[in-house]
Amino acid sequence: MFWPFPIYWTSHQVHHRDAGTKEGVSDNNSQVLTWSRHAAEETEATAEYQCSGHGYVFVDTENIVADDGGKAFNCECNDCYRGPDCSQMVADCVANVDSGDPLFLEPFWIRNAEASATVVPGWYRMSYKIQDSGTIQLLSPELETQIRGIHELVGNAVTEGRYIVIGTGSKQLINAAVYSLSPRHQDAQHPAYVVAVPPHYGTYRTQTQMFDSADSSWEGDARAWVKRSKSLNSTRFVEIVASPNNPTGFLQEGVLEGQNVRTVYDHAYYWPHFTAITEPVNEDVMLFTLSKLTGHAGSRLGWAIVKDFDVYQKMTEYVLRNTLGVSHDTQLRATTLLKTIIAGYQRKLEQGKPADESRNQNLLFHYAYDVMRGRWQKLEKIFRGSQRFSLQNLTSNYCSFFRTVTGPSPAYAWVKCEREEDEDCTSVMKSGGIIGRRGEEFEGEKRYVRLSLIKREDNFALFESRLQAFVSYRNFSVRSTT
After folding, report:
1. Which residues contact residue 77 at a Cβ distance below 8 angstroms, ignoring those fewer than 6 apart?
2. 422-432 b/e with 16+ CB inside 10 Å = b?
3. How far is it, in rounded angstroms, from Cα 120 to Cα 414?
């Protein structure tokens, strides 16, 4: 069976000192740690704290003095859990499913702790520059190799002959793209009109308005301009398209056409665990983010795949002027994470076992899809047949990565309150102990609310319980709508 394994991958082996080996002496198969030993021991020591299964201790968790005078920790607890060891569940705690924090992938990285660990020496890349050269280089060559490799593995984007720009999350790159595609105000009669089709990610509007640039302005719904050919011919338009869409999960295309139209595609969720991969996308400007790929939202890394060299240069200039690049520590961590994902699939091939063995915990996309598919099915079961609520109608599709038809596994539920008196769907959900994100934040109606499905299992379990009780108590059921 043909499998699109990457040509970009690096294997690495971690050796452990045998318990009988004397300190400072290595045998033929291992190297004794010296300066990194203390950091490694400290990291593993904190990871041993179980926190009752409802929290974590990290190296930088605030420590306290134990009864014996040594160092101890108070666990950092998950939502709705309290106490030094996170064993106490907060009574009547609400299920907060507002944010898109992709913590559902934590168990995968815990199971792959050794392969994904990164050691950062105190002197690691202290310069502004990645390498000593005449110009400041934004992107680590090894990270670029792994970014191209992960797209080669998944088959979700064309990177050959394309330029890659990295930013502090894809949020930074959204405005970098708008800046790069907008004419300078002194050279144009009007600023570029930035538009999107609602419902859409609210940052497209809020960020454009916040920067209040003379070169670009937010002009709302892209559909309002479709038939205004005079404007399309005389004014630069920058249409931002999220595909899959946040919040609905639908694959989308731009609606505007014309010589003055430029389109930016936000593909943050175009990975096999959120949607079927139907083809490798090949647009002029495509945005991706580490957070929705690996779950590491706090590392703040995004990248743009760009066709045109001039646009690439302008986006690079924007990032340099704005933040002088992206943290070298972040790039190192991201490199290791992507290597870990790629190597997991490479090992599966080398072992001669089916690459689509979904129970293999070393395969990130299989693991993540199983989790997201299971959560969506639970929601469908709870909402099935309702006359009061409706979910977005997502359908199964053939996924070229999994080489089979896959069912919906979106990051969010986009719920509509159907009853006339339920004008504010967010408030309706809140009355049932569930906090979602208002439809208006996506330029949608108040009758809609977005519910996040990508948080920790503790969070999802509470959300599922609250939703089931809420629906059962009111004798609700849910039907799907287009």
Report:
1. 51, 54, 55, 83, 86
2. bebbbebbeeb
3. 41
Q: What is the DSSP string of 32-73?
A: --STTHHHHHHHHHHHT--GGGSEE--TTSPEEE-TTSSEEE
According to DSSP, residue 402 is labeled: T
Q: Which residues contact 375 (CB under 8 A, 6 or more apart)?
A: 409, 453, 460
Residue 90 DSSP symbol: P
Alpha-carbon span 237 to 240, nearest angstrom? 10
Distance CA 76, CA 86 (A): 8
User: How many whole angstroms separate alpha carbon 250 and alpha carbon 38?
Assistant: 48
pLDDT at 340: 97
Alpha-carbon distance 436 to 392, whole Å?
A: 16
Q: Tokens at residue 326, please?
A: 């992206």
The model's pTM is 0.90
Distance (Å, rounded) from C-alpha 468 to C-alpha 478?
12
Contact 259, 269 (CB under 8 A): no
- Is 99 in contact with 246 (CB distance < 8 Å)? no
Q: Are 264 and 281 in contact (CB under 8 A)?
A: no
Q: Could you report the average pLDDT of every consecutive run of 10 residues in the chain (482 residues)?
A: 33 32 45 88 90 94 68 88 95 96 97 94 89 78 98 98 97 97 84 97 97 95 87 88 98 95 98 98 98 98 98 97 95 98 89 57 95 98 88 97 97 96 96 97 97 98 93 50 40
